[in-house]
UniProtKB/TrEMBL annotation:
SUPFAM superfamilies: Hect, E3 ligase catalytic domain. The gene is Herc4. Its EC number is 2.3.2.26. Gene3D superfamilies: Hect, E3 ligase catalytic domain (3.30.2410.10). The lineage of its organism: Eukaryota, Metazoa, Chordata, Craniata, Vertebrata. Keywords: Ligase, Transferase, Ubl conjugation pathway. It holds the Pfam family HECT. It catalyses: S-ubiquitinyl-[E2 ubiquitin-conjugating enzyme]-L-cysteine + [acceptor protein]-L-lysine = [E2 ubiquitin-conjugating enzyme]-L-cysteine + N(6)-ubiquitinyl-[acceptor protein]-L-lysine. Residues 1-142 form the HECT domain. The active site is at C134 (glycyl thioester intermediate). One of its GO terms (biological process) is protein polyubiquitination. This is HECT-type E3 ubiquitin transferase.
């Protein structure tokens, strides 16, 4: 039985995926030659490919650029007070809403900057917050 289980596990985890993995690896190396990846440590390579899974939310707040707002405006203070009370999952959902991904790319953790902009609506109560994911702009009505 042990031999059967060992052979079965080997088949499921190694042999059955060998062809698809080789196809993936061939395509991946065509676009990203292996010589480039050798300069990274495994943890660095993971951050480059997957992005950072943890975010320093206070650093994120520090890197925001405000347009038509000041950091001391009541709307901004209220936004950050509510944001910092959110659970981690909801904060990541906001990051996904803002940027299209719930992770910050590996090379931009310390310099990840986004904009909070006042859309200057005539009646801000009739406008929901919205984002421009390509430009990393969060439009926050007063």
């Amino acid at each position: 039985r042990k031999e059967y289980v060992d052979l079965y596990v080997n088949y499921v985890f190694n042999e059955s995926v060998q062809k698809p993995f080789q196809d993936f690896m061939r395509g991946f190396l065509r676009g990203c030659p292996a010589s480039i990846w050798k300069m990274f440590l495994p943890v660095e390579l993971q951050a480059v490919l997957q992005g950072h899974t943890t975010v320093d939310w206070h650093l994120l707040e520090k890197n925001v650029v405000y347009q038509l707002y000041n950091k001391s405006d009541k709307t901004i203070k209220d936004f950050w007070n509510v944001f910092h009370e959110l659970p981690e999952e909801k904060k990541k959902m906001f990051l996904g809403f803002l940027s299209g991904s719930d992770r910050v790319s590996g090379y931009r953790l310390e310099s990840f900057t986004f904009f909070i902009v006042d859309p200057q609506a005539k009646n801000p109560d009739e406008l929901y917050p919205f984002a421009s994911t390509c430009s990393l702009i969060f439009y926050l009505p007063r």
